[in-house]
Amino acid sequence: MTTVELVCYKYKPLKNGELPLKVRICKDRKSRYINLGVSTKIEDWDFLNNRLKDSHPHKEEVENLITHTISNLKEKIVELKIEQQDFTAQSLIDKVNSKTVRQTVNDVFLSHMDRLSDEGRRKYMLSIRYIYNSLIAFNKHLDIYFTEIDSTFLRKYETWLRKKKVAENTIGIHFRTLRAIYNVAINENVVKPENYPFRKYKVSRLHEETAKRSLTKTDIERVLSFKPKNNLMHFPIDIFAFTYYCGGINFIDIANLTTANIIENKIVYKRHKTGKLIKIPLQPQAVQLIKKYSKRSSPYLFPILSVFHETEVQKANRIHKVMSKVNKRLREIGEELKLPLTLTTYVARHSQATVMKKAGVSTAVIKEIMGHSSERVTQIYLDSFDNEQIDNAMKNLL
Predict the structure, then answer these.
(1) Where residue 393 falls among pLDDT bands split at 50, 70, 90?
(2) Cβ atoms of residues 280 and 377 within 8 Å
């Protein structure tokens, strides 16, 4: 049992002789008090009925304060019991008394982006800035509080994005990012959890099946054996090949590889995106590519970064620039080969996963090779393969 009751605390009168009014919470035979910050003269208190007399000069205001405080405590008790959460008298008081920090949506976005920059997570920071700019374009400003981002606001934002002809999956990214920022605001006591609008507004419905991103083994071999006339095309093909031979390693991780990452004929590195430690045996083809590009004058295995790129911003800008050129040239190669999809380094990552799956490698092993946080993420890469299996199986009916 948890009891909540008003107490006229007669044991410790104030200096002016008045008695302080408190709310007492009793649970598990332990009592805690909330000081209401108001008091009464002894002659203005009805001890028999435990209430203020009509003679109290501020009777109505004080009673409103008492009712509000007790009501909040009882509502929180019901909420905690429904959620089957244990609590003590003191933790109940702490939950009710937790005050929100007066920060706007704009404040939280900016502080979170600054934090990501300080942590070196510039790519993620830029993706959040993109959503931040989108919200400003929609609402004209973000000098609003999170309580104003309700289901109505979210529906209007979705309609606005659709009018702009934004793709379904991109809309989903917008809302997942906004939801993440809202969760940051809750964790930092900027807004209360009960105002969370994403219980009603379901982000999960903003999804469409991703287009196929993997090539057949035959098409992969066509890319790897392609002999371009333009010498500038050799490096993109080699990066595509290294990605494929090294378990779908991301471009940013390739850029940061140094001689220190080669240990006992393996590439050992921490994935930039997740921090997960990856160990990949070096295939002979990958070794040949490393020998082709590594130089004594540079610690890096590939000529993407150099000793001149010292700061995280310099490195990020350089990686983005080179990756854009590599993917542009891969697209041109893909068009020349008449491939069924747009060729990028990401296609190499998807393709090696699909090839391994078709060879009988388990999803759990592919997850470790690719450095995914869960098998669910790996399965997204393999969905197109699973669909192909279903299509082929259904042909047996004919």
Answers:
(1) very low
(2) no
